[in-house]
Design brief:
Elements: E1 4-5, E2 38-40, E3 43-45, E4 52-56, E5 63-68, H1 72-91, H2 94-110, H3 112-123, H4 127-149, H5 152-155, E6 162-163, E7 166-170, H6 176-189, E8 193-197, H7 204-215, E9 223-225, H8 230-238, E10 244-248, H9 251-261, E11 267-271, E12 277-280, H10 286-297, E13 310-314, H11 318-329, H12 350-365, E14 369-372, E15 388-391, H13 398-401, E16 408-414, H14 417-425, E17 432-436, H15 440-449, E18 454-457, E19 476-477, H16 482-487, E20 490-491
Parallel strand pairs: 1-14, 7-8, 7-10, 8-9, 10-11, 12-13, 12-17, 13-16, 15-16, 17-18
Antiparallel strand pairs: 2-3, 4-5, 6-20, 11-19, 14-15
The structure holds NADP nicotinamide-adenine-dinucleotide phosphate and magnesium ion.
Length: about 500
């Protein structure tokens, strides 16, 4: 089926409007080394594996740097360094541990523009997002957990929380530095030491974080960073001296890790994929709801685990919602992620772009109607996908069932609250959901019945370090953030 483009729509800007935004590129210079080693026992070292891979800027396809590909021996060296450091770190006065975390948080703030630019260059996300979302939340997680370090007895009244030991932490590419903070900060606050494995396509900000850890004189071995691909992550999770595995990524790899730690005494937390629903009732503030849907699915190119990729609209307002969605979609600017006006940056990798394209093809093939705005030219190089949405979607369609991890929204309808709940819950996932209504009682009733770790009401994608985040069903188990998140890093 031919995609519906919005050129003929009444809200389109007139063809002869004759103006456009001037380029507004972020120009903060970021020093990037030609090659990086592994951060083990407080210093950068060459990989024993002697293997390397390149990291590129997905908006230009330029090579940014050469990254070490840690083998099993490198992982072992990192785990041994963490094991040696763990006792002294745990015995350090808790208020001293807190000071290190405060220092890390402050240094992240001081270097935040540089880190935001690097995040955008390595991963493709718009600078306004890395600058205004990723970096503030990264610093906030260190500040927040610094506050807990000497108050753990209050977090778990009547119990004596003890550290678990060495934590192996594996993170994805969509919020690289923020995910590193979500993993490291609670672990360190509780007296554990860490070996962190960033995603293959986005290692650079983790390596800059290693510089910061050196600047604040964090004792050697307390945090170790091993770069590499899936095999590096597997070696880390399987290492016998790792006492806890914390993973954020796909449900597929999460299942592999669950199998790998089964039968051991290792602790495991999994933050996995999602197919999160937004539910718009007819009595909602429609403009506000549409804005929430836009931010839930189209920012960060849809590379968000809790992206609101399924939209359920009460039948009586579906035309209005679809109209406004289309109007808003055509105002989104796709392009140079370093431009401060850009809403949608580059897709993280050629592989991810292919995955998204395959799903869009499947949606059209199964008979859903694709709506996209093709008015803006895309850059010649790099990996791009325009924001789009589908109407005429059936629950059985693959685009309504599987996680796409791209800027692709499926719009469906419902008639009664019961139908909305059962359709929203009809998924193996359960990470997040959004409810849009002006009726307070409906909010509470629906939120209670949705199988989702987070339910946002009349908002979406709002985060706070004090608020636990995590999934139901195949979206994983364990929480990150808040007192619940601390619980994953202590034993009693
Ligand atoms: P992924 O393929 O599962 O990768 C995640 C991490 O695991 C990467 O560091 C990856 O290394 C590593 N890895 C791959 N195979 C492994 C193995 N066999 N053993 C150990 N580690 C392994 O996921 P992704 O494609 O990077 O990220 C997207 C997924 O993450 C989506 O499904 C999304 O929903 C989910 N996600 C969830 C949350 C949440 O909080 N619930 C947050 C963000 C993302 P390489 O990069 O080198 O392959
Ligand atoms: Mg890259």
């Amino acid at each position: 089926m031919k995609p519906i483009t919005t050129e003929s729509h009444e809200h389109d800007p007139p063809a002869d409007a004759g103006w456009d935004y001037s380029p507004a590129p972020e120009r903060t210079p970021v020093p990037i080394d030609e090659s990086y080693g592994l951060f083990i026992d407080g210093s950068m070292r060459a990989p024993l594996s002697r293997k390397r891979f390149e990291t590129i800027n997905p908006a230009t396809e330029d090579v940014l740097s050469s990254i070490a590909d840690a083998g099993a021996k490198d992982v072992d060296a990192a785990v041994q360094a963490a094991k040696k450091a763990q006792g002294p770190w745990a015995r350090l006065k808790a208020s001293e541990r807190a000071k290190y975390l405060y220092r890390i948080a402050r240094r992240i703030q001081e270097r935040s523009r540089e880190l935001a630019v690097l995040e955008t260059m390595d991963g493709g996300k718009p600078i306004k997002e890395s600058r205004d979302v990723d970096l503030p939340l990264t610093a906030q997680h260190f500040f927040y957990h610094a506050g807990w370090a000497d108050k753990l007895a209050y977090a778990f009244p009547g119990r004596t929380p003890k550290p678990i030991g060495v934590c192996g932490q594996i993170i994805p590419w969509n919020f690289p530095l923020m995910m590193a903070a979500w993993k490291l900060a609670p672990a360190l606050a509780c007296g554990n030491t860490c070996v962190l494995k960033p995603a293959e396509t986005t290692s650079l900000t983790a390596l800059k974080l290693a510089e910061i850890l050196q600047e604040v004189d964090l004792p050697p071995g307390v945090v170790n960073i091993v770069t590499g691909a899936g095999a590096t992550g597997a070696a880390l999770a399987e290492h016998p001296d790792v006492r806890k595995v914390a993973f954020t990524g796909s449900t597929e790899v999460g299942k592999v890790l669950a199998r790998s730690v089964a039968g051991t005494s290792k602790k495991l937390t999994l933050e996995l994929g999602g197919k999160s629903p937004n539910i718009i009732f007819a009595d909602a503030a429609i403009d506000q709801a549409v804005e929430g849907v836009v931010s839930s699915i189209w920012f960060n190119q849809g590379h968000v685990c809790c992206a609101g990729s399924r939209l359920f609209v009460e039948e009586s307002v579906v035309d209005e919602v679809v109209d406004k969605l289309r109007h808003r979609m055509q105002s989104l600017r796709v392009g140079d992620p370093l431009d401060k006006n850009t809403d949608i940056g580059a897709i993280n990798s050629a592989e991810q772009l292919k995955t998204i394209e395959r799903y869009v093809d499947a949606g059209e093939h199964e008979g859903a109607i694709m709506h996209e705005f093709s008015g803006q030219a895309l850059p010649d190089k790099g990996y791009w996908h325009r924001p789009c949405f589908f109407t005429g979607v059936q629950p059985s369609h693959v685009i309504a069932r599987e996680e796409i991890f791209g800027p692709v929204l499926s719009v469906m309808t419902f008639r009664t609250p019961e139908e909305a709940i059962s359709r929203a819950n009809n998924t193996p996932y359960g990470l997040a959901a959004g409810v849009w209504t002006n009726t307070g009682s409906k909010v509470f009733e629906i939120a209670r019945k949705l199988d989702a770790g987070v339910v946002w009401c009349n908002t979406y994608n709002t985060f706070d370090a004090a608020s636990p985040f995590g999934g139901f069903k195949e979206s994983g188990f364990g929480r990150e953030g808040g007192r619940h998140g601390l619980q994953s890093y202590v034993k009693f």
